[in-house]
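Revision sheet: structure tokens.
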Amino acid sequence: MNFSLSRTTLIAEADPVGIAGERAVCDRRGVLYFPDLRLLAVSDLHLEKGSSFARRGALIPPYDTGATLLRLQSVIADYQPRIVVSLGDSFHDGGGAERMHSSFRERLEAMMAGRDWFWVAGNHDPDAPADLPGETVRELAIGSLLFRHEPSKTRIEGEISGHLHPCARIVQRGRSVRRRWT
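Predicted:
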């Protein structure tokens, strides 16, 4: 028997969870989507990681940025968010945006067009990406949600952070399990 699952089917399989009173979809592709806000949260893209390593003499294929942008493009096409929040470490280092090939830059700018785009400063990229649209922030509050790169030392209701990479901690029957999606 042959069959295929469309991206729409994959999205529909993800049951929404509640975060600080907001419905959220934990997409298996490592993103978090808030349908009522039309907000997509992504994290730790590490664009231009390959070129960063190459500058230090490491010989690794330069395909990371293109592959990451293709995945991001797919997610944006599926959800059509109004707001995109990139939770830090969007670039592997402070010079990544400047090193990005013009074709990748154009692809990224096309994804950003018509959307509110926020770059949350990360430990790898504390400054605004060079010559890219969007707003760079240390943290961002939208409704009952607070977006930042690193989690607070104390629990804050509605805090969404990225530094730990896409994961969930589930406590059931007194046991805690942490799982990554990627």
